[in-house]
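ok so i was messing around last nite and threw this chain in just to see what happens. nothing serious, just curious
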Amino acid sequence: MSSAAPGQSVPGLFVRVYAAVALVALVGLLTYTGLALLLAHGRALDRANTQFASLNPSLTAEYLEQRTLSSTAFRQVAAQALAAADGPEAILMSSSVDGVAFATADRADRILLSGGEPTAIAQRPLLRVLSAPFRGARELRLEASYPLLQADDAFPILRTALFGVLVFLLLSGIAFVLRVILRPYPSHRPRTPQAAAPARQSVRQEAAARDTLERRRPRREPALAMPGSMISTTGISRADFLRERLDSELTRAGGLDAELCLVLVAGRGIGGDRQRYVRLGAILRELAVVPDLAFEYGRTGFALIMPETELGDAIDKLGSVRSLYERDGQGVHVAIGISQRGGRLIDGKRLFAEAKRALERAVRAGGNQLVGFRADPVKFRRRQGTATG
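result:
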């Protein structure tokens, strides 16, 4: 048992391996049975076409000799065809004008009757009705029904499938017995229940001591708005990861030819008021597509990456943040700067610089403003070409 993977017992590994092998075996058995029945069906259809092709000339020859369909000799030829090992089950000749002229079958239920007169060959599962002009009289049409899956064809296939099922059940029984035999037992058992009691008691005492220590340990409030800290209440990501994540999202947006906006938010009048700061972070976190796209920025600000978002949509969403704090009043101002990728292949450093300039303009305009920046991609590419040339 030492060869088992860590955290996984030999019986558990054995059960998983056996389940995979059993699934493959069952799929293989079902596939074999289906293909074998399909091939038998095709062989039977080929035989039926061959028999039907020879039936028409034999009936035609007798009809031309007797010049009637009701003669005893003609009926004997039809009866011999029905009695053949691979022969049809029913034969019928009819015309659209005069109706049925001749009908015979090996059993009465093979021909449909109406008012005591034959009308058509009964359509049944696993039967194929073949039809062609009767060569002896062009106004008549010859029809004959042939079985497409006879007992002699299906029995060997079903016998093999049944044998496979029995083997599978036998192996399952053996696997169950082995599972019980290989069930792991502890290598060091306590000799008596009393010997194990002190160990259990010491574990409980140790857990109780840890709980007591945790309760007595003074709880520290998380630092407010320090760059790189983790605000557990809001779940805002650390500022250290902003540039790396921004570069990654820009690469993804460039590959998908999708838009992206970077939002920088600065709160004025929050100061050391942790409740206001947490509330602002929670609002931005709700706006994020996923929580880890919201980051700290500065002492009382945040950054937000908005993938697949146009500048206009970003302005509409961020406007709600300002309106919330405007209703609260109390000297709180939220300045917001937004920059859009605008179809450009740029890195996070440039987009961050543009968003920062937009935020600075919002702060200079009074602090409770929202400024968006969107570069002209045509002019940008022209300047890039001039710079590289």
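not much to say yet. Residues 10-66 form the longest helix (57 residues).
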